[in-house]
Amino acid sequence: MQPQVNIDLTQCDDIRCAHEYEPGKTCGSALFSVEYIVKRISALMSPNGKEILYPLQVYVCSACRNINTEMLQGIYGS
Question: With a threshold of 0.85, does the pTM exceed it?
Fold first, then answer.
């Protein structure tokens, strides 16, 4: 059994939308919705030899529909 860790969320930073809609002006919204990017895994790469559709959860800005690049790390490279 792992020890319980208490985290004070008031001490954590909010992630905000980084979309720059005009030079020097960013959206800045802290509200995000869950959406999915679907990856197609070819039969050659698949563990069972059959094509697989693999959904990946991403967070989309609720105000402007932007996906921050930090939220795509590992999906489209670094």
Answer: no
Residues 16 and 48: beta-carbon distance below 8 Å: no
Instruction: Look up residue 50 and give its two tokens.
Output: 């059959």
What Å distances lie between residue 37 and 46, 54, 78, CA to CA?
18, 8, 16
Asked whether 17 and 64 are in contact (CB, 8 A), the reply is yes
Whether the CB-CB separation of 38 and 53 falls below 8 Å is answered with yes
Please give the sequence-ordered ranges of beta strands (E in DSSP) within the chain, or none if there are none.
20-22, 25-26, 32-41, 52-61
- Is the pLDDT score of 71 beyond 90? no
